[in-house]
Structure formats: C-alpha cells, structure tokens
C-alpha cells in the first residue's frame, strides 16, 4: 500500500488524536501531519496504537523515515 491509500484507510482527515505522551522507556509518541489540497490534519498518538489502520500508516512512515 502507498501512503495516500493508508491515509484514506484510516480516515486521517476525520480523526483527532492529541494524546499526552505516556511515560515509559519503551513508549513512542508519533506526531503526524498530512496535507492534501485543502485537507490538513495533525495528530499525536502514543504506543500502543489500537487503531489498526492508523498503526499501518505509522509503520509505513517509520520504515520510510529509516530509508532517508
């Protein structure tokens, strides 16, 4: 799947996660911003991510960032 498909699958522009980071050595917090034309959204979510579609997007973006 490509990024745009993953964004659509998790309905990124209609979600509004803004979680306060949880303390813990293994916990990660992700801040994701997406702009597509007039649609813009920024979310912040911490591990564990329970929404499977959102977790797939985070996994994709994490792998992509390691290649840079």
From TrEMBL:
Record Pfam families: Emfourin
Recorded superkingdom: Bacteria
Record protein name field: Uncharacterized protein
Organism: Sporocytophaga myxococcoides
């Amino acid at each position: 799947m490509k990024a745009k498909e993953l964004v659509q699958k998790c309905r990124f522009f209609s979600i509004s996660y803004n979680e306060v980071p949880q303390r813990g050595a293994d916990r990660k917090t992700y801040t994701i911003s997406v702009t597509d034309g007039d649609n813009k959204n920024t979310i912040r979510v911490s591990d564990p991510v329970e929404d499977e579609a959102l977790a797939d997007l985070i996994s994709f973006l994490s792998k992509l960032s390691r290649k840079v």
